[in-house]
Structure formats: C-alpha cells, structure tokens
Design goal:
Layout lengths: L5 H8 L5 H5 L4 H11 L5 H32 L5 H16 L7 H8 L3 H12 L3 H19 L4 H7 L5 H12 L3 H9 L1
C-alpha cells in the first residue's frame, strides 16, 4: 500500500492554469470525493474500506467524464483559433466580474461572438456553460475566502455576487457537498 498524503491530494483539488490540466478538469463531484478522502473520519479496517470505495468512486467519475468528453468531441463543430481566443477572453471577463457578471448577450458582444457561438465555445473549450463556469469560479473564490480570511459567510456570499445567503449556501453545498459554515468549521478545526 502506498499512502497518499493530504498535500498530494490538495494539489489535485486545487485548480491550475497549466494547459495540461485544462484537458481534464476536476469536476465538483470529484472534488467532493477527494475532500472526503482528505477528511476521512474512520480508522483501521473501516478507514481502508472507506478509502478504497472513494478511490473506486473517483475512477467511476473519471470514466464517466472521459466518456462524455468523447461523445461531445464527435459532435463538436470545429471552432477557429480566433473563436477559441475569444472564449478565453470571455472566461477572463467572467473571472474578473464574479460579483456582477455581464449577461450572456453582453458578454458575447464584448468578445465579438454571437451568443450561440459563445455557448458552443464554452462547452467545447471549457467543458461547461458560461453560467456553470461562473458558478465554479464563484464557489472556488468563496472556498478560498473561507480558508484564508476572517470574513463571515454572509460577507463572503456578497463578495462572490450573492445577495441571498441561503442561495449561496445551496450553491456551495452543491459544489462541495457541505454548507459553507460546516466547511469553515472543518477547515479551522
């Protein structure tokens, strides 16, 4: 048995801008399984069984992801290099405006694409919708703020663009499998 350290897993969980990491993104479901491995509450034989089951879950999620990528690739319309660059520019605009993002039509106008091509580009280049990307980025920023700041959950919700704290908590729970307050307590414990 080769032990996997929490630091090694943390590197896998953390998003990266390295190009090879964009080929295969860690999905929210994978991230939850990895977080559960890092924070395994069991010991002994129960721990071994739990960790083995989580590893099998990760393998199943990866196979599903690869299968979906292959299906999408066969249906894909080929985007021009310029279109791909515009999709990346749209991604940057969304990342810089998490608290008040432009609408899809405004975003398409800003980057010089029609909304259909922008939607298609997000799916092909980033494997998600523009809204899905925005949500992932908001939740990732919220997670980092919970880790690195002393802000309250309410302040963090506002910082990432949520006026309603319960909607923020629901989105966070969907992304990470637990409420932001529970996550905060778990990390700071």
């Amino acid at each position: 048995d080769i032990p996997i350290s929490p630091i090694t897993l943390q590197r896998v969980i953390e998003p990266s801008e390295e190009p090879y990491r964009q080929i295969s993104l860690t999905t929210p479901e994978m991230r939850v399984a990895l977080e559960q491995i890092i924070n395994c509450p069991f010991t002994g034989l129960t721990k071994k069984i739990y960790l083995e089951s989580k590893c099998l879950e990760l393998i199943a999620l990866k196979i599903e992801q690869l299968t979906n990528l292959e299906k999408n690739y066969t249906k894909a319309i080929v985007l021009k290099r310029d279109d791909i660059a515009r999709v990346h520019y749209a991604k940057e605009i969304l990342t810089q405006n998490l608290d008040s993002p432009p609408s899809l039509l405004e975003l398409a106008r800003k980057v010089g694409l029609n909304d259909y091509k922008l939607k298609l580009g997000f799916r092909q280049v980033l494997g998600t919708t523009a809204f899905g990307y925005l949500q992932q980025q908001r939740m990732e920023k919220a997670r980092k703020l919970l880790l690195e700041s002393k802000m309250s959950v309410k302040q963090i919700a506002r910082t990432v663009g949520y006026a309603n704290q319960s909607r923020f908590a629901a989105a966070f729970r969907k992304q990470f499998g637990m409420n932001p307050k529970s996550y905060d307590l778990l990390i700071k414990a």
